[in-house]
Amino acid sequence: MSVTYLGAMLASNHALQFVPYPTQVLGKSVKPIPVMILGVLLAGKRYPLRKYLFIVLIVAGVALFMYKEKKGAATTVGFGFGEILLITSLLLDGGTGSIQDKIRSNYTVKTFGMMLFMNVWSVLYLGIGLLLTGEAFSFPVFSFKYPSVLLHIFIFSLASAVGQFFIFMTVTNFGPLPCSIITTTRKFFTILFSVFIYGHPMIIRQWIGTICVFIGLGLDSAYGKQKRKVEKIEKS
């Protein structure tokens, strides 16, 4: 799990050297799809057809809402190393989700336990990477030259740890797929709230995307409640 988690992060961050940030954000917005597909192929998960439809609606809505055209520029379609890295990152995200599903199916897991051991192994792998690349020796020099970076790293680490807690709490209690849906739609709602707070106008494409997201979330939520109700009746 740590290998796929780190691989997805490295591929996603490295992709920014080849593609603009909006492209990276847009690419990562389809994360629930590989999580669902690889969950089926590797973890043996089964979803009804309607579940696929709901997820595609949500992902398509987020993509429509977040996509930005370049004004005055000709539309070009390209596929290069940056896009390959994004696809690799998405496949590794799906692999992480399928492994988490397997762990949840075979063991009783707790939030802090999964979070701790994933990070312990991640530190080990990153330590090896630091030694092999030489960054273990160059970074102390950089931090002595720019000591203010240490405060930024501390704040970043604190925010990351708190964020990870909620992510792992969602994974252990509800599963990787709901977690990926939440993290994807979080970006959508962040931008949507800024639109209403600061009064930025929305174009027709963004309104269509907004409608798709809310329809997908509403149907998925309604289906989830109906399923839990049926399971509760069957158990009683």
Could you characterize what this model shows?
The protein is mainly α and 236 residues long. The chain has one domain. It is 82% helix and 0% strand. The longest helix is centred in the last third of the chain and has 32 residues. The two termini are 36 Å apart. 23% of the residues are buried. About 2% of the residues have low confidence.
Summed up, the domain count is 1
Helix content, binned percent: over 70%
Main structural class:
mainly alpha
Please provide the ordered H/E string of secondary-structure elements. Answer: HHHHHHHHHH
Q: Largest beta sheet, briefly?
A: none
The overall strand count is 0
The DSSP helix count reads 10
Give the radius of gyration: 20 Å
Q: Which band does the percent of strand residues land in?
A: under 5%
Q: Which outline best applies?
A: globular
**Mean residue pLDDT:** 81
Cα end-to-end separation: 36 Å
Detail the poorly predicted runs. Answer: 73-77
GO molecular function: UDP-galactose transmembrane transporter activity; UDP-glucose transmembrane transporter activity
Family: Belongs to the nucleotide-sugar transporter family. SLC35B subfamily.
Transmembrane segments: 25-44, 51-67, 73-92, 112-134, 146-167, 179-198, 204-223
InterPro entries: EmrE-like (IPR037185), SCL35B1-4/HUT1 (IPR013657)
